[in-house]
Every structure is written in C-alpha cells, then in structure tokens.
Specification:
It is found in: Mitochondrion. Residues 57-66 have a biased composition (Low complexity). InterPro entries: Ribosomal_mL46, Ribosomal_mL46_N, Ribosomal_mL46_NUDIX. Residues 98-235 form the Large ribosomal subunit protein mL46 N-terminal domain. This protein is an alpha+beta fold. The chain has 3 domains: 8-67, no CATH class; 97-111 and 234-380, Nucleoside Triphosphate Pyrophosphohydrolase, CATH 3.90.79; 117-223, no CATH class. It contains 13 helices and 8 strands. The protein has helices at 8-26, 30-34, 47-59, 117-133, 139-142, 148-160, 191-213, 220-223, 233-237, 278-290, 314-323, 362-368, 371-377, and strands spanning 97-107, 251-259, 262-266, 269-271, 294-298, 305-310, 328-341, 354-360. Strands 1, 2, 3, 4, 5, 6, 7 and 8 form an 8-stranded mixed β-sheet that branches. Helix 6 runs antiparallel to helix 7. The radius of gyration is 38 Å and the shape is elongated.
Amino acid sequence: MQLGTTSNGARRAVALLSARPIAAELGVCRTCAQSGLLNIKRQRGYATEAANAAAATSSTTTATATDLPPVPPASFSTGSTQEGEGVAPLTVGTKTHGIKAGLLISRTPRITRDLTSFEKAFFLYQRRLNERLALPFTKYFYYKKGTPQDQDYKRKIAERLTPSRDIGRYSGYGKEAWNDELLVGAPESETAHQIEALVKDAQKSDSTVAENDGMKSENEEDEIPKPLSRVTEADLKKDYRSLDRELQRTLYLVFKIKKGDKEFWHLPSVDIVPGETLKAGAERALISWAGPNVNTWIVGNHPIGHRIYTARNPRVRQQALEKGEKYGYKEFFLKGRILAGQVDLTLAKPELGITDFRWLTKEELGAVVGAGYWSNIKNMLGDR
C-alpha cells in the first residue's frame, strides 16, 4: 500500500526528516524547527556546499559565528620548558590521587563440587527409574549357558536383583518396582557407597574368572584401580602455598607485606607510569611480586573492580597538598588465570617487603585481609 502525498503519515515523516538534524545540532525543539523561525543551513562535508556557504557569508552583513577570532590550537609538553612557556609535565591520576594497576590471579576449580543430599537422592532415583523403563536384559545373548560368565551373572542378580551395580538392591519388575525411593539416611545414594559397590563387583568378577582359569591372584584388591580421593595431601597438611588444595574451589593469589612494624595481606599491584596501560601495569605487577616463573593469562583489557584509598588524617592531607604530593590512590584490578608455574619469592623485588604468599578461597581470603580492603574486593570474587 502506497501513502498519498496528502496523508498524515507522509507529512509527519517529511517534518521529522527535515527538522531532526536541525534540532540535534542546534538544541531546539521540533516545533521551532518546523515554524520557519530557524533560517540556518546545515553544514555538509561536500565541496560544493562549502563553496556556496563561503560565497553567502561574504555577501551578507549579518554577524555570524564566523566573525569570531579563531581559537589557537592547544599545545602540550611532557618535559620541562622555559620560564613562562609550555605546560606542566605529564602525570598519572589527579592532584590528590594516583593510579595503580592490580591483578586478581585465580586458579579455577579442577573437579566438580560435592553434591547435596537432595541431588544425590534425585540422581539415584533417575537411575532406578531407568531400570523400570528399560527392557529386560537378555543374558543368553551375551553369556552362553554354563560358562563362568553366566554363573557370575546369576550370582550378582541374586544379590542385587538388577544388572545395575550402583543402585542398591532393587528390581525394576515385580510388585515392589514402584518402591524406588530411598529412606532418609540410606547409604545407597552416597558416593562412597557407590564406589565401594563398583569396586566390589569388579573384584568378584575377576576372582570368578581367575578361579575357573586356575590363576587366582594373591592380591586381588590391588588389581582393581580405585578413584582418587577428592581430598588431597595438601588439604590434609594445610599447605596454603600449594595449588593442589581445594580442588573444587577457586583459589586466589594473595601476598603478605611487611612495612615497618605492620603486616598485612594484599593483592599484587604497582603504580602506573606515564604512557602505561592498566594491562601492562598488571603484567609488571605480577613479575615484580611473584617472579617470572608464573605462566598466566590476563582475561581482558578492562578492570573488573576498583578501590579508592584516601588518607584519613586531615593533617596528612593538608601537608601533602602543601608539598604538591598525593595523599591517596585509585587501584584498578584486572582478572587473570594461572596456567602453569608457581610463585618464587626469591625472584620478587626486595623493596616490596613480601614475606609470604598463599592460594586461598574466598572465605579464607576474607579472614586474612582487612575489613576495609575486603569490602572493596569481595564482589570481584566468585562464590565457588
């Protein structure tokens, strides 16, 4: 459908297209633009329009913005100049606060988290439900009658009533098939119980085959590989410097700094120098604090959080202003991941006063840093 030239929609479209550029450039409303009060041409980037505008300006006597004197270009200087010339040297930050680049290095979880009691019961219920819905197992298709494998299968079915090995004593067929939910406190849903059932089933299978072949092993338990523990040796020894602890949690790198008689925990950070980006400063902070043996990946160029520190004592702030010094700083944190390596304090800069480092979880980190520092960085940390 094509609109006529006299339609209301066409008139509104023409008015909008003709008035919006003027309103956007001059900051006036659409009504004033449509009323004809603004008799000003829009400047375009075409050579013909520029020539016409120059001719019109020379022939008119009305004072316009072109009568104003040109603004001289700004000049910058990054070093010292002669007296009365140039500007101040290039600095980072404001007159009262400097700029720092910090780095939040983390080690991601290596294993899945522990399941809740509800999740354990739900997954076991799903496996038992599968036994009810699946077709019966055709044993004679896989095991020939009278063979050791057939005898082993019959023995296991008599014990657990189902081919599945880790759902407990349950049958998906019969009058009690509906009773597939566990009672409160039943061990069948626990991971340790299921691992024990799987290992026991594998041991009995190997034992049956070995007896029929006349080659029974002396150490049958050692022949079945078992899953590794979710609790490592570093967890038992409480080795906070190890990366092999708390495998299901995210660990964050934090350093212990000693300045005079005070000791505190802090994330790595450095002062930004003129011309340096936040990412370059964060990389320099990592090498200065942890040494060059840490292989990391900085996720992006933008910070994930920041904190502002200002001296609390008014006298200190006043003295800093009189001396032209800064009494605070703004610290921006970037996110990084450790890929390989480990911190080496012997290669860190001694003037930083670093005495220790730790890989801590979110809760452990909140227990060692100060309350004010923790309130600024806690929202950057993951819950897991």
